[in-house]
Amino acid sequence: MKSWIDRRSLSFLAFSACMGFALPSFASPSAAQEGEKKEEAKADDKKKEEKKDEWFAVLNGDVFTGTGAVLRGATVLSKNGVIEAVGHEVEVPTEAKTLDATGLRVYPGLVAINSAGLFGATGGDFADSVDPYNQRMTLALASGITTAGQSNVALKLKRRDIKGVVLRERYLATLSFTNSNPQGKREMFERFDRAARYLRDYRDWEEKKRDNKDLKEPAASGVDSTVRSILEGRVLARFNASNREDLLEIARLAQRFGFRPVIDGCIEGWTVADELGRAGAYAVITPRDRRDKEEQLVRDGGSSIENAAILHRSGVQVCVIPSTTGVDLGGIAGRDILHLPIEAGFAVRGGLTDQAALEAITIVPARLLGVSHRVGSLEKGKDCDLIVLDGDVMHYQSLVQFTVVEGKLVYDKSQELFYAHIRPRPSTQLAPEERKDKGEAEETPKEGSEAKPEEAPKEGDGEKPADPPKDPPKDG
Amino acid sequence: MVSKLSIVAVGLSLGACAAPHKQGEPRDAELGAIQPLAEGEQGFALRCGKVFTLNDADDVFSPGLVVVRGSKVDYAGPVIALPAGYELVDAPELWATPGLIDLHSHIQTGGWGDINDMVLAMNPEYRTSPTIVPANRDIQRACSAGVTTLFGIPGSGTNNSGFGVLYKTRCSGSYEGCVLADPGGMKVAQAYNPERRGDLGATRTGMAWTIEDALQRAQAANAAGRDDKVLANLQKVVTGELPVLIHTAGSDAVHTTIEMWGERYPDTRPVLSHGCFDGWKVAPYAARIGIPVNLGPRTFDWRQSEGEWVGTPERYAKAGANLITVNTDAPVMPQEELFLQSTMGARYGADSYLMLKACTVNPAKSFGIDDKVGSLQPGRHADIVLWHGDPLDPRASVESVWIEGKLEYDRVRDRQRF
Amino acid sequence: MTILTTLLALAPVLTGPVDPSGGLVAIKVGRAETVSHGPIDHAVILVDNGKIVEIGADLPVARGIPVIDRPEWVVMPGLVSCYTRLGVESRAGQEFNPEVSPTPELNPRHPDYKEVLEAGVTTLGLYPPGTGVPGHASALRPKGKTVADMVVDEDAYLKVYFRANSASKKLVRDAWTKVDEYDDKVKKAKEKWDKDNKSKGSDKKEGEAKPDDKKDDKKTFVPPEPDPKVKPFVQVRDGELGMLVSITQSADWAHWLDAIGERKFDYALRVVMTREIDMYEVTEEIGKRGLRMVMEPQITLVPGTMRQRNLAMEFAKAGAKIAFKPRNDTVQDHVAWRRHVGEIVGAGLEREAALRGLTLEPAGVLGLDKQLGSLDKGKTANLLFLSGDPLEPTTNVEAVMLDGEFVFGEVKE
User: Fold this and answer.
1) C90 pLDDT exceeds 80?
2) B112: pLDDT confidence band, cut at 50, 70 and 90?
3) CB-nearest partner of A331 from B59, B276, B352
4) Mutate to test the interface with B, among A286, A340, A348, A422 (most CBs of B within 10 A)
5) Of B302, B334, B395, the CB nearest to A348
6) Which CATH number fits domain C79-173+226-370: 3.30.420.10, 1.25.40.620, 3.20.20.140, 3.30.200.20?
7) Interface pTM, i.e. ipTM
8) Beta strands of B113-171 (E only): which ranges?
9) Are the beta carbons of A450 and B395 separated by less than 8 Å?
10) What CATH number was assigned to the domain covering residues C1-78+373-413?
11) Which of its termini does chain B have fewer beta carbons within 10 Å around, N or C?
12) B6-98+375-414, which class in CATH?
C-alpha cells in the first residue's frame, strides 16, 4: 500500500480514483433500481398466483409517452398496475376495464419533487400515517400529480389506499456548501476528501488482499457515511444554492469528486450554466423566482426567466417546481403545486422546449427521487400512472379529465365536485349512462358551446402558440 | 424555437400581397385611411399574425396591420396598402394587442413603502403621485410583460389615503413622461383590511360611516359652492368627475359597497375592487346595478363554496356583471403577472376573450380612459404589445412593447426580462 | 283520574303471582315506541320487579293490578348515553392502561346525574379519559347512594383511542401480539399439564383430545391468569368485552384496518363529529361491516367547504348502526339530545334508526342490548314517558321510570 504525501498527487489520484468508480456509478442508481424492480416483479409473480390479473386499458388517446414519442390514437395497457404495452396494435383482454380517451391526450402522471400537505398531517412515518382521503391529495391528483417528494421520501398519491405509498426513502442527501459559511464549507470539503481517500484505499485493499490475506482493511472510522454514499452513487447530494459563487464552488466540488449535484433554487445558474453542465448537475428551478441583480455588479446576475432554457442547453437536467409546494386554497391561483404545468409553462416562456418542460415535471424529478424505474414516463414495465387531458398539458385551459394510478382510475373530473362544472366534456365523449347523470352538462350548454372553439385542437407537441382565444363574435 | 422578429423597412405598396382577412372586413371609414407621413413625422406599421383591436366590434384581424403615427394609432385593421415612409415591422407569427392595464397596483414606489399614512382614517387631501419612482425595476418588468398603464394607489390600511395616479410604465420615462392623469381617481378601502386597526375604527359599520360622512361633507361643500382644500378632489368624486376604486371583499362588504356607491351615490363612478372570498355570491346584485368589478389578486374561492372550484371572474360573468377586469394588487402578485390573472380566470371557467378584455379595454372603460388607452383604434395611444402567441398563455413571451409609439421594451435589445 | 280497572279477561301471560302492592303495575299509554319492533298504539306495559313482563296493544289487565292510564302519553325506553364523562373530573393520560376503570372516580351525589335522569337518560356509559388505551368503560344507572348502587356493569367496553400514526398502530399491534404471547403461554402450560397428567398415569384414557373433560375437578386444566394489561384484549377476542375505537377521519379507519390485520373481533367506532370531517369516504366500508358508530347528532361539512353532509343518515343507509351521544358532554345537551337527533331526522335520517340511536344501539355499545334499550318482555323497566313524539322539540318529559320505579314525574294510579 502506498502512502500519499504530496498533496497534488493525492488530489490527482483521489480524483482519478473517484472517476474510476464514480463515473460508472452514474449508472449505478438505475442498476440498483433495476434490482429492486426485479424483486418487485417477483412479488408480483407471487400475487399473480393468488389472484386474477387486473387489466386496465386507456384507448384511442394521443399518447405523449414523456420520452419524446407521441402516439396518436394509441392504447396504454396496464396489467396489475404495471404498463404491459403502449402502442397501436395492442391486444386488450376482454376482461380489461377500459377508458375511452378519444380526442383526449394521455401523459405520464406528473412528478413533484417537493410537496407539502398532500399526504395529510403525517406524524413522520408515511406508511403509518398517510391520509389517502385527504382532499389535497385528491386536488393534486386532479391537477395531474401522481408522485411527489416530501421530507426526502418519494411517495405515490394512492387515493383511498394506504399500501405501497412509500416508493423510496432518503435518496437525496441535503448538504450545505456555501461561501457564507467558510468553516462549514471547509469541513464539507474535508469530508469529501476523507471519504474519497477511504474508498480508494478500500479498493486498493480489495485488490491487494488477493495476494496478501493479512493486509488490514482500511479503517472506515471518521468517514462520513452520507458523503460516502454520495460518492458510491447510492444517494444524490442536494444543495440549496442560488448565488453564482456558491454554484461555481458546488460545480467544482462535484467535478473534483465525481458526483452529480442536485441544486435547488439555482437562481443565478444561467450565469454559470456551462460549469454546471460540465459537473453533470441537476437543477430544481422555479422559473418565476425573482431576484434583482445587485446594482454595482457589472457581470450578469439575479434571476432570469431564461434560466431553465439556458441551463438545459448546457446539459443541466432541469426539474421545475412552483414556489408554493403545498396546495393553496386561499384564492390566489397559479402559484402552487396544483399549477405545476403552469409553472413549467414559464420555463417554456424563457425558451425551454416543450419536451424538456414536460420532462422537468415528469422524468427528471423521478430521477431525483430515485424512482425513475417506476414512474416519470409511459413505458412498458413502469407503473401505469397516467393522466388524460382535454388538451396540451401545459395549456392553461386544459384540465385533467382522468387520473390513473397503478392501473386504477382514481379521479374522473365529471364525477367529482371540484372541476366538473368547468368546460364539461362534450357529451359525445361520455358513455350514455354517464350522460344521464351529468346535471352540469345540461345546465350549462352555453358554456359548453362557448368552450368549443377553445377546445379546437391544441396544436401538436413543441408547437407554440398553442391555442388562440376564441374568435370574437362578429357585428352583434 | 421562436422566430426572430424581422424588421423590414418598406417604401412600396404592399397591396399586392395583403389580403384582408374575411373575419374583419374593413369599414368604409378605414379604407384608405392611412395617410402618408408628413414632413418630420414619425410612423411605423406592424404586420402581425393576429391583431386584437379590442374595439367595440371585437374585431380580430388575422393577419392584421397596425399603423402608428407619432404617438397614436392611425389604423388597425386588415392588411392594406401602406403609403411611403412607414417603417414596417413584419411579424407573421406574432400577435398584437393593446398594452395591458391594471387598476389596482402599488408598485409606483418600487416597494411596499409610502402607501398609507396610518394616522387618520380618511386622507382625501393626499395624492400618490409624489411617491412615484419612475422606471423602477418593478415598472420595467411590468412593461416587459406588456403592462403599459397602471393606476398606482395608496394601500387599504386606512379607509382612504388619498388619490391614485394613472401612469404609463415607460422604462425611460421621467415623472412627467409617465403620468396619464393625476389624480386619476380615488382609492377607498371599504372593508376587509382597514377595520383591523383598533385606533382607526374596528368595525365594518364604522368604516361605512367614516366613508359616507366624508362623501356627505364633500356634497355639502359642492352645494355651498365652497372651495375646500381638503375636500377638493373628493368633491370631484361625488359629482363623478373622478372615478373611485373601492377595496372591498366578501359578500357582506361587497354588498355594502354596491348599495352605498351604486345606489345611494349614483353620481359617483365606482369600481369595485377585489370582490373576492364569497363576494361572488352578490355578483347578481353587482350586475343589476351595473357596477364595474375589478377582480384579484384572488381569482377563485374555495372555502365558501360547496366544494366546487369557484372561478371568481366566471361567477361574475355568469351573473352578467358589467365590465369585468382583473388586477394583481402588485406587489401581492408580481405586476408582470397581470396577464396570468386573466389566464386563471379563463382556466377556471371564464371565456378567454372576455379575460383578454379584462386586462385591456375593460379597465380603460371602467375608468373612462378608453378614449386614450385599452384598444387599438385610430386616435388611441400607440400602446402596443407583440406576443409570441396567445397573451394569456404563460408560454407566450413578449417580443416588443411600444408606449405612445416609442419602443420601450424589445426582447432582443433589452434581453428577456419576463 | 287513574282508576283501578277491572277487566274480565285474565292476562294469560301473567305467570307470577299478582301482587298489587309489591311492584306489579300496568301502564296504559297512547303509544309505545318499542324501538325493537315498531310503535304500538294503545299500549299496555306490565312491569314487575324492575322488569317489563308484558307489552302489547290493549292488553287486558287482571283485576287488582294497579293501572296507570295516561292515553296522552308516549312511552319509549330510557335513553342510553353510552359515552360520557358526566359528573367526573377530566383526567387524561397517554398510557396503555386497559385495566383501568373510571368507576373509582364516581361521586354518586353529583347533581348532574339527577338532572340527566329527569331528562330521561336512564343509563350512562362512563368512559376512561385519555389517549392510547386508557381503560374500560362502566355502565351506570344515574341514581344511587353508593358507587355500587350505580354500577350496572363494570366491564362495558374497552376504550381505544386510535389515530393514523405509528404510535397508535404500534400500540394496537403490540396489544394483540401480547394476546398471542399469552395464547402461547396457555398452550405451553396446557402441554405441560397434559404431560404431567400422563406421567401420573391416572388419566391415560382421556387422552389429549379431551382437555376440557371435567371428570375430576383437580385434573381440570386451569389456564394461567393473563396479565391485567393483556386480559381485556383476551376478553375482547373471546367476545366477553366490547371495544370502542375512537377515530376522527377516514384515514384513521384505513390505518386501523391495517393495524388489526386479519384478526376478527367485535368493536364499535366512536367517530368524533368535528365541524369538518371526511368520514363519508368510507361509508360503504363501514356500512358493509354493520358496525356500531357512536356519534353526535350533527350535520358536518366537507372539509374546507360549505357542503353539508348528514353522516348519520349516510352510514345508517349503508348498514351501520348509529348510536348517538349528546353533542357536548353536558347536562344541557343531554336535555336537548332528543331534539338534536330530531334535527338529523329532519335532514333525512330514518326515524326508526334515530330512536334506536338513542336507546338500543348505545345499549349495544355497552353490551347491554339484551337487558335494556327497547320495550320488550324481560328487559329492564327503564321507561321514558313523554308528552308526545320523542323527536318533536316541544315534547316534554312527563315521567321517568328506572328499574321499575318512578324516579321522576307526578304519577298517580
Assistant:
1) no
2) low
3) B276
4) A422
5) B395
6) 3.20.20.140
7) 0.91
8) 147-152, 163-168
9) no
10) 2.30.40.10
11) N
12) mainly beta
